[in-house]
Amino acid sequence: MRKIKSVVGVIIALTFIFANLHAQNNMNNNSTFSPREKSIIAISALTAKGDLPKLRNELNRGLEVGLTVNQIKEVIVHLYAYCGFPRSIRGLQTLMEVLDERKAKGIEDLWGAEASPIQDERSKYERGKEVLGKLTGVTQDGPKTGYSAFAPEIEIFLKEHLFADIFERDVLTYAERELVTVSVIRSIGNAEPMLRSHLNICLNVGYTPNQLQEFESLIKSTIGENETNQIFPKGDLITNEYFKGNAWLKMLVTDKENFDLTAGNVIFERGARNNWHSHPGGQILLATKGKGFYQEKGKPIRLLNPGDVVEILPNIIHWHGATPDSKFEHLVISSQQSKGSIVWLDPVTDEEYNDF
User: Fold this and answer.
1) Which range marks the domain in which residue 257 is found?
2) What angle do CA 200, 206, 209 make, to 5 degrees?
3) What tens digit of pLDDT does each residue of 73-115 get?
4) Separation of alpha carbons 74 and 170, rounded Å
5) How far apart are CA 308 and CA 304, in angstroms?
6) What's the predicted TM-score (pTM) here?
7) What are 273's strand-pairing partners?
8) Ordered alpha helix ranges (H), 254-342
9) Are 203 and 322 in a shared domain?
10) Are 46 and 55 in contact (CB under 8 A)?
11) What string of DSSP letters covers 88-123?
């Protein structure tokens, strides 16, 4: 029930903002996020959730679409203020590993500019007040209310540290920092008042209602929706060489001797798939969530939606996985196990995967 209320709160917040600001943003309503901005959103969300395997992929993608090392570092440092040091530090450690791997492959990534020295001699509190005023469009000189009056020290920490120490660093723009902030708040959930405030700030710094709608879709596809309401557990990350992209497996039935079959739950991230393969005893797929692909050798790719059933006869060469824009989950029932184990073959090429 709490999860449902959280999602409803986000929808209400977005609807309210869009309704009130549609007219003034109408000219820019078709704007979309750039590849760099999309990567900032994904890196922030995955770091906040602690999904390090997917974060590795997104860090590589971010570097490839033009984010500098210092910009990605700044994203991960910034978000500690919203989801804590443990998530931020694990994100930085993962970035270090990715950079080492890329360097070993001969890839030299651009480090980019460092933060400029702060020349303003005013107190950090005054500077923070000014930054927050620019972001919100509201002066910060009124009487303290709410949590600021209840715990004045946190209001000081907020302005001095968050909006002075962090927001003043010019490695990222205010707009980019708001993408980080909203991505984290949306991903961790149960913080709707802060989410509404920062959605309004996003509009103040130049993003459009249409972009915020796109943002919601990006977050859903990045972190997945309703993962906490899994019917079957997510299972373990598959680490063998027969999968491209991340996939997770939870075995549900393993007693081959008595049942002559096995059953498991498989979750593919978007774009992930397995190699061509066959089963001596055949297999049945039961699609339960998202959108997926299934293809038999020599036949067209079949799109799978929840409720679809695939009956795979013995020794039929095939592959299955997620579509490029959606996670995919299915149950797999491998029958007649006494006839032998799965036979793995060549990877599915990008040309084969994209031939839909």
Assistant:
1) 232-353
2) 60
3) 999 999 999 999 999 999 999 999 999 999 999 999 999 999 9
4) 10
5) 6
6) 0.59
7) 244, 321
8) 256-259
9) no
10) yes
11) HHHHHHHHHHHHHHHHHTT------PPPPPP---S-
